[in-house]
Amino acid sequence: MKTLSSRTLNKSLTEKLLSLYTREEAGSIVQLLFEEFLGLKRKDVLLDVSIDALPDGMKLAMDKLADGMPIQYILGYTFFYGRAFKVAPEVLIPRFETEELVHLILAYQGTATPTILDVGTGSGCIAITLSLELPQSRVLGVDISASALKIAEVNAKTLHSGAEFMLGDILQRGLPAGPWDLIVSNPPYVRQSEKDRMHQNVLGHEPPQALFVSDEDPLLFYNVIANQATHCLNPGGALYFEINEAFGNETATLVEQVGFRAVSVHQDLQGKDRFVRGVWNG
Ligand SMILES: C[S@@+](CC[C@H](N)C(=O)[O-])C[C@H]1O[C@@H](n2cnc3c(N)ncnc32)[C@H](O)[C@@H]1O
């Protein structure tokens, strides 16, 4: 039987993805496929290990990739703060910046054991990670999407997290009563007008409800959450937002005007304004 050269296969699959991804991104994606479907590490490809046949699953995955589906949805999982989370097209794929948000919270929290509310929990990545990193905490995640919550619940079970989840539209129904020591949210924050600059695989495959807000009211979620938080945060409790890089100052001003103190804007690893924190003095 004729075998395939792993180096040649790697090169030809990478080239098939170049209309959608940079060469570096395409190479990393193909390497993930090699590991998932062939059990081959990068060093095996460098050694040009031979392959008997391309598994059907890998061919299908290549078709989906060429169609713009993100690799995380194809594999069905992604890593967040060192743990594997189930993902599917019903939930936003957790981003690196959101790991930084969790890291920021943990740096401020120390070893405290708070009650935590995660607004717009999606896959549950923030809620579950906080519950595992702060094992004595009590964490609730709320989301408008029932199908997202099903995935969050699977993640909590698989990762042995005690985080709980609740269905709710916070724009209509407000925040769950609490009281909370910490409220965190990575709400939809991409303006409709920013769509042009987005990658095809985000636009065509990730849930619009998780991403977009209107151009007319881009801070809608921040406004509602910050105002509501004043009724359900304990004195000394903290509010954390992930934000659109274009609105660092505006979001901080909004949070300050609502009555929060010690409001600060924090940059992500790319140096962009990405997080806002405020403390509620009651
Ligand atoms: C940017 S995603 C964040 C998901 C996850 N927390 C993360 O960081 O990867 C925003 C989430 O807010 C949810 N959402 C949108 N509108 C909502 C609303 N009115 N009430 C509650 N959740 C909402 C979406 O379903 C989505 O899961």
Descriptive report:
Helix content is 43%, strand content 22%. It is built from 13 helices and 13 strands. β12 and β13 form a beta hairpin. It is elongated, with a radius of gyration of 21 Å. The protein binds S-adenosylmethionine. The site of S-adenosylmethionine has 22 residues, from α7, β6, α9 and α11.
Write the layout of secondary structure elements.
Elements: E1 4-5, H1 6-16, H2 23-38, H3 42-46, E2 50-51, H4 56-66, H5 71-75, E3 77-80, E4 83-86, H6 96-109, E5 115-119, H7 125-133, E6 138-143, H8 146-158, E7 164-167, H9 170-173, E8 180-185, E9 190-191, H10 200-205, H11 208-211, E10 212-213, H12 220-232, E11 233-242, H13 248-258, E12 261-267, E13 273-279
Helix pairs in contact: 1-2, 6-7, 12-13
Bound molecules: S-adenosylmethionine (SAM).
S-adenosylmethionine binds next to α7, β6, α9 and α11.
